[in-house]
Amino acid sequence: MMPSMEFLVATGIGWVAACGIWLLLRGRTFPVVLGLMVLGYAVNVFIFAMGRLWSNAPPIIGAGGQQIADPLPQALVLTAIVIGFATTGFAIELALRSRHESGTDHVDGKPDDDTGSRS
Amino acid sequence: MMGWLDHLPAMPVLLPALTAIVLLLLGDHGGSEHSLRRLRLTGRIAIVSALIGLAIATRLTMQAADGPIMVYRMGEWPAPFGIVLVVDRLSAMMMLLTSLVAVPVLLYANGGWAGHGRYFHALFQFQLMGLNGAFASGDLFNLFVFFEVLLIASYVLMMHGLGRERLRVGVHYVVLNLAASALFLIGVALMYALTGTLNMADLALRVPQVQGPDAVVLQVAGLTLLVVFGFKAALAPLSVWLPATYAASSAPVAALFAIMTKVGVYAIWRVHGVIFGDAAGPSANLVEPLLLPLAVVTSVVGVLGMLAAQTLPRLVAWLTVASVGTILVAVGLFDASAWSAALYYTAHSTLTVAGLFLLVELVAAQRGDVGERIEPASPVAQPVMLGLMMLLVAASSIGLPPLPGFIGKLMLLQASMGHGQVVLVWSVVLLVGFASLLGLARAGSTLFWHVRTDLPSGASGASAPLVLATSTLLALSVAMSVFAAPLQRYTQAAATQLLDRKAYFDAVLGEQGGAAARPTRPYTGQTGAAR
Predict the structure, then answer these.
(1) Closest A-chain CA to B172
(2) Which end of chain B offers a freer environment for a tag, N or C, measured as fewer CB atoms within 10 Å?
């Protein structure tokens, strides 16, 4: 039996979110920013899926009885994407500035001890 | 045809937005003589705009005090389909509080800080827009959008003046907030999936209809939102980010941020107090078992942080955490008179903390190299004035009569009588008051009495606008004591209004509400039409 679309989408979102959280917990700013982006993608697909998964259904109310795809989550996702784009841009700029100012890309602004190679 | 007064609920959002655009178009100063004139010009525009905002907020509060809930429908689309701004007594009071903090803080920033970085005034206006928007927003997704507006402005404001420490803390602040925003979206999306609406009044109607396993998922959504709002409000255990962030920010920015934690409190009120309130069916009183214990922990952690603080801004930042804890204890009692106390205490603690952030910078500036560290230093140039201001504000935040901190705590203690946790509430509130007395007395005596005359004392007095701005905030917080009776009537009315669900539905939803609330589309496991 084919896995259902719900199963694929749900595990997909879960996997992407897990990757995002793992990256978010890294010690350097670049993976952290990547983690925020990936987590953002997972959240966007999640919002999209909250309108339920429909195929062959228009997002507008047509003739009576026809099934429709919920257009509202799509509008919400659009807003979330725009905001996510802006904040990611800001986070990248901030990470660069912090690297420039402190001389390290560690999130705590100090070189860590275990690698030690960074002068 | 609408009169211009009908558009008043939208003005607190529109005015700062337009002002910010004008300020952006006017451009930034670059350091030359011509640019300094431009800095002064932008500073004046910002102050004038903030004063107009104050007038609008005052008018809205007066209208809310004796009138019904004001609902502003964008483009005349009926709720719950269109976007609504809802201004009730709680919203109006929070907007007024925002303006009351903003005007003195802008005055203070014009005394020097505004020139230490770029586009301070434009960002400040965007922050005000986000704050007012969050307080006026009538649906959950707009609440998210305005949260983002105020956060994005706050990211840049927090790093105003730059420097290594601000950037280091700034990275943490931004990353944590972006992660919290992701959680916010997950919570909002789940709420939508189960109820089919995001309008807060409509949600309050539909949440009780969600039954069975769906109700469990809905409660997950509600608790996810509690994590997000608790993070913004610095509810323990999510309060650790706050002291570092606020202490690293420049004084006027930290003073403005005093209102930002209250946005989290406000959102908890709206979502967990009203939507997941008494009448929410299977999800009723969702956070009641959690909020009170967490709030108690927050106040204790805050006051312990105060006792351990090594610098003045850290001390004030931990005081912020402790006061948020006290407010949330009152919110967590879920009762009209406790909510009234919470509102009164919110106004008091916002003004006090904002004033303290400004005051400690004035003090630190006169202490030579020791600066903001709580250590003996050369005597300050204006010991009598600064000492008296410090004494006043410390006595008020500890809760000594007849200052407003005392009245707020008294209201809270009275409201907790008869509640199951009365012993816990009394002992924590009183012990926290005593411990903050220790913390502030330790800092105050080191600052003003334990002076070292052997150090060179070249400090000059603070300039008049800075003193004026700081004392305005302190005077406002004392005025709350003088006008305690009308204020208490107002907060009591606001709390009663929050619990009056029918009036809220009628105002926001009108004909569409109540009867039209239909069960949400159940999840059947069928995937669309083309199977």
Answers:
(1) A107
(2) N
CB-based contact, B41 to chain A, within 8 Å = no
What average pLDDT does the segment B272-299 reach? 91
Q: Give the model confidence (pLDDT) of B46-92 as tens digits.
A: 999 999 999 999 999 999 998 789 999 988 888 778 889 999 999 99
**Least confident piece of the model among B115-129, B259-273, B445-459:** B445-459
Domain residue limits, chain B: 287-482
Residues in CB range of B306: below 8 A, 6 or more apart: B315, B318, B319, B322, B435, B436, B439, B440
Angle between helices B336-365 and B404-416 (to 10 degrees): 150
Distance from CA of A55 to the nearest CA of B (A): 5
d(CA B387, CA B367): 13
Instruction: For residues B37 and B28, give the distance between their C-alpha atoms in angstroms, rounded to a whole number.
Output: 11
Q: What does the alpha-carbon distance between residue B112 and residue B43 come to, in Å, rounded to a whole number?
A: 11
Nearest to A90 among B152, B188, B530 (CB): B152
Minimum Cα–Cα distance from A48: chain B residue: B189
ipTM score for this prediction = 0.91
* A77 touching chain B per CB within 8 A: no
Contacts of A101 in chain B (CB under 8 A): 162-164, 167
Task: Kindly state whether B388 is in contact with chain A, defined as any CB-CB distance less than 8 angstroms.
Answer: no
The domain A5-54+69-102 is placed in CATH, from the list 1.10.287, 1.10.8, 1.10.1740, 3.10.450, at: 1.10.287
Nearest to B175 among A36, A72, A76 (CB): A36
What is the pLDDT at residue B284? 87
